[in-house]
Amino acid sequence: MTRLSSPADPPTFPERADDPAFTRSLQPGDILLYSGQSVFSWIIRAKTWSHITHVEVAIPTPEAPSLVAASRNGVGCGLYLFNPKNLALVMRPVLGQHTFDATAALEWYTREKIGEQGYDWIGLLNFTYARAVDRDNGRMFCSEFAVRFTRKGGLDLFPEQDADTIAPRDLRLTTRLYPAWRSAAEWATFHEQKAYT
To answer: Which of 48, 71, 125, 193 could be a cystine partner for 167, CB 3.0 to 4.6 Å?
Structure first.
């Protein structure tokens, strides 16, 4: 089920992610998908056959409207300020079917000291057989973190699938989310794909 708007939605997103008003349109549980250009991003592109290379979870509050939860390359798991650079898509839980409780997710994050975990490059490069590896090294890559974080908030985007097996691009493909915002480049790609179908 795909929908583009609803009376319950916040104000319409500005066209550009770097618009100061952009974060006012974010809702808790929005999934932010990035298309990075770094060397590490190109490794992820090659590994996943997708331009989506990073994922974060929006957890805005009145006091911190640009707060996100993520595992960022070079830093690890943490709570960060929204970064508009290379944002490709904002995916939102389908209204009425899937909800997200940011408080519950943050309680898990605090209780388990998730903020002390580093970025798991080895896990990311092995996610295709992560279930066979079946080891916890105290680190998480971005999509693994996003799936675990949203699950703890009651939003299970991939039921019965281990978070270690989820690539960043998979969060673009789940039917439990719909695109609430696309960058200009993402719109161009969307229209090109529609032209060939």
So the answer is: 48
> Is residue 130 domain-resident?
yes
In a domain, 14, yes or no: no
**Count of beta carbons in the 10 Å neighbourhood of residue 169:** 20
How many domains, the chain? 1
pTM of the model: 0.84
pLDDT at site 130: 47
Both structure tokens of 38: 């770094």
At residue 111, φ and ψ (nearest 5 deg) are -60, -40
Instruction: Compute how many other C-beta atoms are within 10 angstroms of the C-beta atom of residue 123.
Output: 19
Residue 106: how many other CB atoms lie within 10 Å? 20
Q: Residue 163 is part of which domain span?
A: 22-191
Residues of the chain with pLDDT under 50: 1-7, 128-135
C-alpha atoms less than 13 angstroms from C-alpha of 27 in its C-beta half-sphere = 21
